[in-house]
Specification:
- The protein is mainly alpha-helical.
Length: 179
């Protein structure tokens, strides 16, 4: 191989390198992208307290619980409770499962089962499980008490909620009088 051949090979390599670098510079000029001052996206979040008990009681006062309770019956409440039985027991002396035992729940303090570890939202909620409280909670637990561990979607139909509440009330040592 003579020196002329070697010069052609080196020249070809240099031309390719210069062409690649030159095209990169030209592309930067043609497709100019300005960099933001602060990298990333800014997400605006409205701040709201995790649980507002005055808001909960206002919602509970607006509902005519006597009319709601008139819709339900214990027999259909027992059928509907089968959904709840995966996580809760209803028998007297029943053990806690994923959720606390629900025997004697109507009239009991929220977070009142001693040997069950409640979420902070339920443990700090200073109320009793009345018919109104149960109705609101069973409608959509996660939005009624923000921060609850109960991941159940809720019962949309008032008749279903009333039936469950009547069934829970019946499963008690001393059932409360219906409103």
């Amino acid at each position: 191989m003579d020196s002329f051949e070697l010069n052609k090979i080196i020249a070809a390599i240099l031309i390719v390198v210069l062409l690649v670098i030159g095209l990169g510079k030209i592309a930067d000029v043609v497709f100019y992208v300005s960099k933001p001052k602060n990298p990333g996206y800014q997400v605006e979040v409205e701040s709201k307290l995790t649980s507002d008990t005055s808001e909960v009681t206002k919602v509970a006062e607006k509902i005519d619980i006597a009319a709601v309770m008139a819709l339900g019956d214990v027999a259909s409440g027992e059928k509907i409770f089968k959904k709840c039985a995966a996580c809760h027991s209803i028998n007297k002396g029943g053990k806690n499962k994923i959720g606390p035992a629900l025997y004697n729940v109507v009239g009991r303090a929220v977070g009142g089962v001693v040997d069950y570890k409640y979420s902070k939202a339920l443990a700090s909620y200073d109320n009793e499980w009345t018919f109104e409280e149960l109705n609101g909670f069973l409608q959509k637990p996660a939005s009624y008490l923000k921060g609850t561990k109960m991941s159940y979607a809720g019962l949309r139909k008032e008749k279903d909620r009333a039936s469950i509440i009547k069934y829970l009330n019946q499963n008690s040592d001393s059932p409360k009088p219906l409103p």
